[in-house]
Design goal:
single chain, ACP-like_sf, mainly alpha, 3 strands, 3-stranded antiparallel sheet, transferase, Citrate_synthase, Citrate_synth-like_sm_a-sub, EC 2.3.3.16
Length: 464
């Protein structure tokens, strides 16, 4: 076996016999996005070259890497032959644009995130969440009158139907996001009645979406109150979205720093274009399932460990590292086992996730307010140890600092995913409304590669 094949096998942690010409990125579990970055770093070290973004995209097969290692440092497309003419499969729909959107723009190479043309940096620093929710759902930032009307609409829907509140109480033993998904589904039984066989109109979908934006934070907070052994408080009528949520969640009036963090956190989490959960919401509402069903499906997808569920696992990084001076050792140990460092890397961004700086700034404020910077020091040290991988897109992501902020608020780690959902609800509603407004049933294809025309034993014409 050639030295480059041995390098591939060693870096991906696979047997050398699996390194074949047709082995490619994402064709096996070990060659995932983290494995690919590790492979690029290993190639840089072995051959004394810099693997830039263009090469990273080109070196996606063993054949391309072998060609690169053999001396051609600019691997081009494979020759046009029968093999290259086969059906092209984009696993995970990577790189596929399935529709147009006016909701959110992401430039992964430049680290840009905009909601309807407005920079996430301006929104996070200057807007309240109600403004951003209005922007996403209605298409424009509200003036003072429109903001007051939208805030009044949200406040009018805070109260939960009594049976749903009792359902949340009965699920006090359940994980917060499991309880939330179940209760959101139950809300669908308490919406406006429609004639059987009648699809939800755009106006009805918007009304249902705004009601969900108002009620989902109350569900999360009420469930946490029940499992904490107390009854949910009723927030002051004039309290903001973030303040009302924290009042019910914490059982007391929140500090200004806590309100600022939650407001900013909800804004940076509000939407992220066609991520897995938003796509799920679009698929569901594209089937005319309705807004509540679409968001129930989105929550189910979001809870997965490689999507929003990662937020809960990231905070364990602090405990695993233990102290800032162990960060380099911790990162090296994980890289040696080809395991991910939680809180780093993103499917889209090739540079810093633009949301990170805003969450870190609020964690700094909360840490200083509570006189405890140990967790912040650990995360910053891990980020420094991961810097060599940043050039290949494995930079801090939105999950890295969020979990620590929740801990600083005195909240359990398992609330991380449900808290993320509260902010993301506005984006899901906007995406679902956009899908419904110009709907097409989303129905991709699969490339069948299994056996064909197999005789059924005993059937007429089957072999003896």
């Amino acid at each position: 076996m050639s030295s480059v094949d041995q390098l591939i096998a060693r870096t991906l942690g696979i047997d050398e016999g699996r390194v074949t010409e047709d082995l490619e990125y994402q064709s096996i579990r070990e060659w995932d996005s983290l494995g690919h970055v590790s492979l690029m770093v290993a190639l840089e070290g072995a051959y004394g070259v810099t693997v830039d973004d263009e090469l990273t995209l080109a070196l996606r097969t063993v054949g391309a890497i072998r060609e690169f290692a053999g001396g051609d440092r600019s691997p081009g497309p494979a020759p046009a032959d029968a093999e290259s003419a086969r059906t092209i499969v984009h696993r995970g729909l990577e790189g596929i644009r399935f529709d147009h959107t006016t909701v959110t723009r992401i430039d992964g190479a430049e680290g840009v995130l905009e909601y309807r043309g407005y920079s996430i940096h301006d929104l996070a620093e200057h807007a309240c969440f109600e403004e951003v929710a209005h922007l996403l759902v209605n298409g424009e930032l509200p003036d003072a009158a429109a903001l007051e009307a939208f805030g009044k609409e949200l406040r009018a829907h805070r109260e939960l139907p009594a049976p749903v509140l009792e359902l949340a109480r009965s699920l006090a033993h359940a994980h917060p996001v499991e309880a939330l998904r179940t209760c959101v589904s139950a809300l669908g039984a308490f919406g406006p009645a429609r004639a059987r066989g009648t699809d939800e109109s755009q106006e009805e979908a918007r009304a249902a979406g705004v009601a969900l934006i108002a009620r989902i934070p109350m569900l999360v907070a009420a469930h946490h109150a029940f499992r904490s052994g107390r009854e949910p408080l009723v927030p002051a009528e004039d309290s903001s979205y973030a303040e009302a949520f924290l009042t019910v969640l914490l059982g007391e009036r929140p500090t200004p720093a806590a309100v600022r963090f939650i407001n900013k956190g909800f804004i940076v989490h509000a939407d992220h274009s066609s991520n897995a959960s938003a796509f799920t919401a679009r698929v569901a509402i594209g089937c005319r399932a309705g807004m509540t069903a679409a968001l129930t499906a989105a929550i189910a997808a979001f809870a997965g460990s490689v999507h929003g569920g990662a937020a809960e696992r990231v905070v364990g990084l602090i405990d695993a590292v233990g102290s800032a001076d162990r960060a380099e050792e911790y990162v090296a140990a994980l890289q040696a086992r080809n395991e991910p460092v939680m809180g780093f890397g993103h499917r889209v961004y090739r540079t810093e996730d633009p949301r990170v700086r805003h969450l870190r700034s609020t964690v700094v404020e909360l840490s200083q307010e509570r006189g405890d910077t140990a967790g912040l020091d650990i995360l910053d040290a891990v980020a420094a140890a991961m810097r060599p991988y940043g050039r290949h897109g494995v930079a801090p992501n939105v999950d890295l600092y969020a979990g620590l902020a929740y801990r600083l608020l005195g909240l359990p780690d398992d609330l991380s995913v449900a808290m993320f959902v509260v902010g993301r609800t506005a984006g899901w509603v906007a995406q679902a409304l956009e899908q419904q407004a110009n709907n097409v049933l989303i129905r991709p294809l699969l490339d069948y590669v299994g056996p064909r025309s197999r005789p059924y034993p005993g059937a007429a014409g089957a072999g003896a």
